[in-house]
Amino acid sequence: MTYHRLIEITPATHGVDIDLVYATPRNLTGKPIYRAAHCLLLEPAEAALRRAVQLARRIGTTLRIFDAYRPPQAQQVLWDFLPDPTYIADLGRGSNHSRGTALDLTLVDANGEALDMGTGFDAMTVESEHFHAGLPELIQRNRMLLLGVMHAAGFMHIKSEWWHYELPGSLALPVIDNSESGPLRLM
User: Fold this and answer.
1) Annotated binding residue at 4?
2) Where are the alpha helices (DSSP H) in the chain?
3) Which residues are recorded as binding Zn(2+) (predicted)?
4) Are 167 and 101 a contacting pair, CB within 8 Å?
5) Catalytic residue among 129, 161, 166, 180
6) What is the rounded average pLDDT of the residues 6-29?
């Protein structure tokens, strides 16, 4: 079954904290990539996110989303800035963000403070790997908490980025170009 409907994710509808960094200059390019901050996911990813939200609540945390659906044009901007397939999906393969099935996120505590993950979001370094050796125990524990929540909700991780999760089998889905008709616009 193929899903093509993108669903908007908001704090009010999904109980998440949203900080879409690509709508701000606080990302690896140093400039906004999106004009407007709209958080969107494909239907099955949105359902898995709802499960993750409930699981995170059980351990006293909230999910903070940094990115979700990303138009292919935004993926091109990222690739042009950092053409390294370790961190940015090759344009020929396409990003699972551009399929609406991937999201970048972290956990925040009851005070709204992000748990220490050892690096910031979009830190394209070896220390950003999920299981990077030599990180302090607290950071390993925090990463494992996020990993457990997301895996239990049905997502899988990639090796190079502690913040990135996607639905298994995403590569079988088409890339969605929502840049012209949807609420997400590129600069």
Assistant:
1) no
2) 11-14, 43-58, 72-81, 137-153
3) 97, 104, 164
4) yes
5) 161
6) 96
Look up residue 47 and give its two tokens: 């359902």
Active site residue 46: no
Pairing state of beta strands 161-166 and 156-158? antiparallel
**Smallest Cα–Cα separation from 129: which of 78, 87, 69?**
87
- Helix crossing, 137-153 with 43-58: angle to 10°? 130
Residues 70 and 97 sit within 8 Å (Cβ to Cβ):
yes
Selection from 31, 37, 8 nearest residue 78 by Cα:
31
Q: What is the pTM of this model?
A: 0.91
The answer to whether 185 touches 179, Cβ cutoff 8 Å, is yes
Question: Which domains does the chain carry?
Answer: 6-172 (3.30.1380.10)
Give the mean pLDDT of the chain: 91
| 104 in a known ligand binding site | yes
132 is in an annotated binding site: no
pLDDT tens readout for residues 110-142: 999 999 999 999 998 999 999 999 899 999 999
State the pLDDT confidence band at 179, using cuts at 50, 70 and 90.
low
